[in-house]
Specification:
Layout (H helix, E strand, L loop, with lengths): L8 H9 L16 E3 L8 E3 L7 H5 L33 E3 L9 E6 L3 E6 L2 E3 L1 H16 L5 E4 L4 E5 L3 H11 L2
Antiparallel strand pairs: 1-2, 3-6, 4-5, 5-8, 7-8
Length: 175
């Protein structure tokens, strides 16, 4: 079966590309623009109006760029959070707090059953931290646990779940 097109291909093309808009309609300005009436007759001038008095309502909705510093506490708070020491301990390594002011020790479960504990944000001599962690966990568990040091990402991995023990140990050291 053959299809016959009308002899007016330009009218059909204009209809398809023009989005079914008639020729006598004028395009409307976008919603962000307002027409100003002081333009010449027959000519519309586009102007962006900026309202600074209403911006205070928008500022309330914008989240803060960083977490504020926590208030000073003498010891452990009711939630269990403990502040860092006023001066960092005199050790060859430093462990920075996370942006929420927590000690960056995490547990990881990979390959279904492989349990790992990660210490992140280590600065300085990461090998001295590994030696101290091995000694501490040998006293806690009674055996030497395998560890993995990544100098590029500044993380220390320990085989097993020891998140609470390491967090308490690092808090006692003053981190």
């Amino acid at each position: 079966m053959a299809v016959f097109l009308s002899p007016r291909p330009m009218a059909l093309r204009r209809l398809l590309l023009g989005g079914f808009r008639r020729r006598d309609q004028t395009p409307r300005p976008p919603a962000a623009f307002r027409c100003v009436s002081d333009a010449a007759p027959g000519e519309q001038k586009m102007l962006i109006l900026e309202s600074t008095e209403k911006y205070k309502f928008v500022e309330r909705l914008i989240p803060p760029s960083r977490v504020p510093d926590p208030p000073k506490h003498a010891g452990v708070t009711p939630s269990g959070w403990s502040p860092p020491a006023d001066t960092p301990p005199p050790l060859p390594y430093m462990i920075r707090r996370s942006r929420m002011h927590n000690i960056p020790v995490y547990t990881d479960l990979t390959h279904g059953s492989r349990r790992m504990t990660l210490i992140r944000k280590v600065e300085g001599d990461i090998w001295a931290l590994e030696k101290d962690v091995k000694e501490y966990l040998k006293d806690v568990t009674g055996k030497e646990l395998p560890t993995q040091v990544s100098e590029v990402t500044m993380t220390l991995k320990v085989k097993g779940h020891f998140e609470t023990e390491l967090k308490e140990w690092l808090t006692a050291k003053g981190f």
